[in-house]
């Protein structure tokens, strides 16, 4: 019954003939274990899910050799990017961010009175921590670093990032957004949070875990920092539903699903790379579930070519350029992209 009602209502969004690859959603998720846990959790939704929240915080902490006191849960990591901006805005000052990057938190930061300074990437579209370092002054309250970066897909070498974290003044918070780390081969920087109370690492169940619609994210921070952040939530750690939390707990216990998604992403990404190469469209090697590429030498309108085959999602993040980002779908979805480009 559920399936029928649901499918009918969602029909316009789930037509099989439409391929949606614009928001870096995982085309495979949620995993079976998460789905089962979420279905079972529906009937417990009359209760507040404190116990599950605690279990999830403990499990997340354990994954990074940390404690539940180091973990703050939110309704997606975007809620927590907002909380960190609010925290930074308690004192007037500036925010630094390489750009283009994930900009969702920027309008709120500006409204909160922070002066947001965007810093250019290198010519190879990588984040240049020297540029960021040179821009730090006594007014810098917050530095946002998305690693791997969205939309460019580049990753900062771990030793370089670690040195940057160590050398950043203690009064400046570093918000390190690791939404896509699971797709890269580089480690999380979460092991540094106890040593550096000015480091906040944001992570999510929306990408590799395939639970974007469930809305569960978290930050890892020194316990004192984590407490200050959760104090700014109307109800600490209580943004995600009982159903979503149960799915998150189950997916931590199912690492084979993440390994599967990572492998499939590599295969599907290669299909797209091959298509881009065939059409001589330059791209940045990606450490994520999306690819950034330059269509300025492509004779047709890339987006229109895909849209005429019912493939939606190619998006621009740099006005005045023809760089586009496309999310990686399943292997067969990326084969459909390749076919559309050939036609
Ligand atoms: N951070 C980055 C870099 C993202 O790309 C996204 C979503 O696309 C988010 C955070 C927000 O994710 P969520 O709020 O679903 O956890």
From TrEMBL:
Keywords: Aminotransferase, Pyridoxal phosphate, Transferase. The keyword Transferase applies. Pfam families: Aminotran_1_2 (PF00155). Residues 18-341 form the Aminotransferase class I/classII large domain. InterPro entries: Aminotrans_II_pyridoxalP_BS (IPR001917), Aminotransferase_I/II_large (IPR004839), HistidinolP_aminotransfase (IPR050106), PyrdxlP-dep_Trfase (IPR015424), PyrdxlP-dep_Trfase_major (IPR015421), PyrdxlP-dep_Trfase_small (IPR015422). It comes from the Bacteria. Pathway: Lipid metabolism. The keyword Transcription regulation does not apply. Gene3D superfamilies: Aspartate Aminotransferase, domain 1 (3.90.1150.10), Type I PLP-dependent aspartate aminotransferase-like (Major domain) (3.40.640.10). Belongs to the class-II pyridoxal-phosphate-dependent aminotransferase family. Histidinol-phosphate aminotransferase subfamily. PANTHER family: HISTIDINOL-PHOSPHATE AMINOTRANSFERASE, HISTIDINOL-PHOSPHATE AMINOTRANSFERASE 2. This is Histidinol-phosphate transaminase.
């Amino acid at each position: 019954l559920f399936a029928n009602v649901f499918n009918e209502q969602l029909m316009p969004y789930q037509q099989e003939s439409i391929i949606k690859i614009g928001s870096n959603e995982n085309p495979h998720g949620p995993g079976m274990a998460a789905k089962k846990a979420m279905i079972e959790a529906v009937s417990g939704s009359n209760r507040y899910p404190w116990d599950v929240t605690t279990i999830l915080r403990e499990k997340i902490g354990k994954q990074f050799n940390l404690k539940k006191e180091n973990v703050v849960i939110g309704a997606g990591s975007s809620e927590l990017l907002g909380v960190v901006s609010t925290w930074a805005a308690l004192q007037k000052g500036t925010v630094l961010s390489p750009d283009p990057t994930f900009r969702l938190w920027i309008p709120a930061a500006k409204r909160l009175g922070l002066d947001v300074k965007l810093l250019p990437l290198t010519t190879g579209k990588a984040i240049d921590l020297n540029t960021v370092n040179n821009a730090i002054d006594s007014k810098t309250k917050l530095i946002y670093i998305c690693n791997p970066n969205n939309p460019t897909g580049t990753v900062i070498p771990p030793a370089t990032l670690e040195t940057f974290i160590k050398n950043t003044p203690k009064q400046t918070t570093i918000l390190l957004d690791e939404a896509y780390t699971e797709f890269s081969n580089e480690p999380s920087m979460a092991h540094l949070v106890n040593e550096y109370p000015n480091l906040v690492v944001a992570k999510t169940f929306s990408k590799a875990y395939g639970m974007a619609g469930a809305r569960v994210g978290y930050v890892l921070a020194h316990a004192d920092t984590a407490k200050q952040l959760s104090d700014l939530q109307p109800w600490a750690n209580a943004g995600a539903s009982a159903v979503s939390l149960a799915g998150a707990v189950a997916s931590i216990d199912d690492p084979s699903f993440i390994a599967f998604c990572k492998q499939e992403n590599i295969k599907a990404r290669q299909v797209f790379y091959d298509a881009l190469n065939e059409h001589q469209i330059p791209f940045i090697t990606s450490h994520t579930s999306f690819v950034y590429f330059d269509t300025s030498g492509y004779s047709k309108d890339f987006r229109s070519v895909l849209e005429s085959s019912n493939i939606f999602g190619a998006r621009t993040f740099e006005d005045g350029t023809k760089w586009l980002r496309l999310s990686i779908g399943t292997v067969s979805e990326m084969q459909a992209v390749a076919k559309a480009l050939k036609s």
